[in-house]
Specification:
CATH topology: Creatine Kinase, Chain A, domain 2
CATH class: Alpha Beta
Largest sheet: 7 strands, antiparallel
Distance between the termini: 35 Å
Pfam families: GCS2
Keywords: ATP-binding, Ligase, Nucleotide-binding
Organism: Promicromonospora thailandica
Function: ATP-dependent carboxylate-amine ligase which exhibits weak glutamate--cysteine ligase activity.
Number of strands: 11
Enzyme class: ligase
Strand content: 5-15%
Order of helices and strands: EHEEHEHHEHHEEHHEEHHEEHHHHH
Shape: globular
CATH architecture: 2-Layer Sandwich
Number of domains: 1
Length: about 350
Amino acid sequence: MTGTGRTVGVEEELMLVGHDGAPIARAQDVIGSARPDDGPLEYELMEEQIETATPPRSSLEDIAAAIREGRAGAQAAAERHDARIAALATSPLALAGTTVGKLRYLLARAEFGLTAREQLTSGCHVHVSVADDAEGVAVLDRISPWLAPLLALSANSPYWMGDDSGYASFRSQVWARWHTAGPTRRFGSPEAYHDAVKSLVATGTILDEGMVYFDARLSARYPTVEIRVADVCLSADTATLLAALARALVETAARARDTPAPDVPVEILRTALWRAGRSGLKDDLVDPRTWRPAPAHDVVGALVAHVREALVDQGDLDTVTELLGGLWASGGGAARQRAWAAESDGDLAAVARRAAEATLA
């Protein structure tokens, strides 16, 4: 499966906020009354958020349109209950989230305590089609060095409980509290991957296979690799860029499956992810070519160079270049949120309101 045969689907977790910018617990109302033309809407752990999912699409133009349609449908559903959607990976305002009153979520809250109670965080998950589990595991073993730059590109959660966290993506810090979250070792075969998942479930420390929260994993529902490392992107353009780069990473890795996969220690991968969450696009990242610090612009350039052939074959290179230019000009989601806070004398409710507007821009 090469070039135009590889499809992409994008899942976005979106915050529900009131017109004052504060998160609002309306998920059951919004989803319960959703109409077919709102698109598929799903629950997340908290009542203050919902999830959209695009159908699998091949062309980047169609992927971009599906992301925007998903956001518009979610907004239409939210408006019926006096709420808005906001592509915020964490709430700028302090809030104790409300766990959705469904058995699985209530069990998670009881079992995992504060880790579950404080998981009002929103990510973006990109599903890229693969031929089978063998190709999927070959991809997982080869994309891990490049996941940290994807986090940096998406970073959109500088605020936590009403304070500036000092991070571009504090969601990545909160999410890392889950004991199955983060980067993984090299598996080598589908059997080794599935044995690892079964072993985690057998420990009894997670509810089920759905709680295997690897940064990239084989989807349990679809024939895809699911890349889960990113914050939900403030801009639909950034989400489109993320989808294009994720597909190109998968394609590049699949083409290299007959060559040895890099054997990078998990502790190095985890440290690179921490650096990406801390810095975003502002400062140095860890360069996957050397595992030494390098300016974010150089590391992102190295990512594009790494997947350039796949981008060219897919016809995505020009669009990716244009979208990257826009991202560098804006500074990304975290930088935009901080700029809005400065413009409003630290009014974080105003930040949330402007994020809601940017979500649909």
